[in-house]
Amino acid sequence: MKTHSVCLPILATLALSAAVTRANVNINNAARGVSPSNAKLYVPDSVNNWSCLDGSKTIPFSAVNDDYCDCIDGSDEPGTSACGTGQFYCANIGHTPSNIKTSRVNDGVCDEECCDGSDEYDGQTHCPNVCEEVGAKAREENDRIQSIQNEGARLRRGFIKHGKANKVSLTNELETLRDQVDQVQLALNDARAKLDAANEEQGAYLEGSKSEREATRRQQLEPLIQEQTKRLKYAIEVRDMLKITLQNLKEKHNKNFHDMAVKGTVSGFDDYIVAQGEKTEVVEDDLASLASDRQFDALVDETSVVLRDIGTLHDLLDGMKRDYNTEYNDEAVLAAVKVTDDFEITWDSSKLDFADVEHLVLPEELPVDSPEAEKFRDATDLAQAAFNEASDKENKIQEGIRDIERKLNMDFGPDETFSQLVDKCFDFKDTEYTYSVCLFGDANQSSHSSTHLGKFSGWEGDNYDVQMYTGGTKCWNGPERSVKLVMSCGTTTEIVSVTEPEKCEYLFKLQTPAVCPIPEGEGEADEQEQDQERQQDQQQEEEGEEHTRKHDEL
Ligand code: MAN
């Protein structure tokens, strides 16, 4: 209701325009912008007054929608923008009714929510009524979504049926496997004991036939031992020749020259001799008493020792050869240099043989060729094969138990919907990467190499439509990679998009029937149906038993 405190001429003009506005308002009446469900709130009382909906004020009913805001809650102006805070109802016949803020009434903009154009009625802006067209499109879209949801719900019912049946069969399977565990473990222990016994018997036999075996082995290794002995001898000759050269140098060089290179070599040689004195030289005869394998190993070891000596002695001579004073013409020095030169020429070619010797691999011991030996060998082989078989069987059963326990411990939702999808993998290619997820398993990102994005770590929220995969490869300068997998209803299960909203935090969108809504009450109907089916099955089973009993009695 307007209060008139302006001067008269203006008042007259205003009164006129107010009359025009009122006339409009009256044409459109107090119900403009009021939804049918609220219409009962917009009726005058017995004296033609009306109370604001918040009860704060009573005004003449004619002041409702008079383009002047009287009520604090704006409820007196549902059809004008005077208050701006209320709700304007668009009937949108042919589409869906909607409410917009009254501040958007007659603001010169055709609001999408008011497809009937009723929000712009002051004649300033013409908004055509497009509700039929928009409604038809919306209905088409609704039909499309509805048919996806119907088909999705049908498929999901299949998932649920499968999930529930699977849980029962997995539980039974687990029980069967657990019943088998004791039995296979006993069999495995038995096989292990038999294998130990066979090995022991074979060991005892081999111990008893040691000399016979050694004879066979010696025959096999003899050529190698001889070759290695020859090489060791040659190495010792070379080493001794270098030792004599250095001994001569030490004794015969002219001490008055004080040639530092010569002195250094001689004192190095002294150190070598001291160190040498602490070592025990291996004597060929000592080696001959060893079993052939050990003899061969000892020969190889000793050859390596001598080769190292040759290296040390040569280093001493070579050091002197490079730095000695040539002006002294010391004969002992010149003789040693000559030996060094000759040694270097011949050694380069002969040392190749030594390199070979060092890496010589011993041949496998030939099996003893006697019927008795064969008998033990066969018995051990058989026991080993039986043990392997028992062990494989036990492993398989334990593995089966672990796999079933893993599945039974997983949260597939209250109706087991997701049982159908466990370990099922899906890919999505974008321009740079291929993303993949194996549901309840791992998520990866790959291009030329693969990056782990995370392992299934649980559901987010209570709706069973968001999964988290965490603990992926650490991001450079950032967190461990992780995936949030958000599901929506679809008739197939597939990844429809992958984005990376935050660095190394990925968002997979997956459509699947598993989250399609099942119309209320149907789940229970399904349960009842299943109960009935179960009862029928049980009845048939009992009848079957009865039948068998009668048959047996006859
Ligand atoms: C790789 C990919 C990207 C990620 C960067 C972070 O290039 O895993 O998704 O953003 O590493 O450094």
UniProtKB/TrEMBL annotation:
UniProt keyword list: Coiled coil, Disulfide bond, Endoplasmic reticulum, Signal
Coiled coil region boundaries: 131-201
GO cellular component terms listed in the entry, alphabetical order: glucosidase II complex
InterPro entries hit by this protein: Gtb1-like, Man6P_isomerase_rcpt-bd_dom_sf, MRH_dom, PRKCSH, PRKCSH_N
Biased composition, class Acidic residues, residue ranges: 521-530
Residue ranges of domain MRH in the record: 423-518
UniProt keyword Coiled coil present: yes
Segment forming the signal sequence: 1-23
PROSITE patterns per record: MRH
Domain of life: Eukaryota
Example of a GO biological process term: N-glycan processing
Region (Disordered): 517-554
Statement: the UniProt record of this protein carries the keyword GTP-binding: no
Protein name as annotated: Glucosidase 2 subunit beta
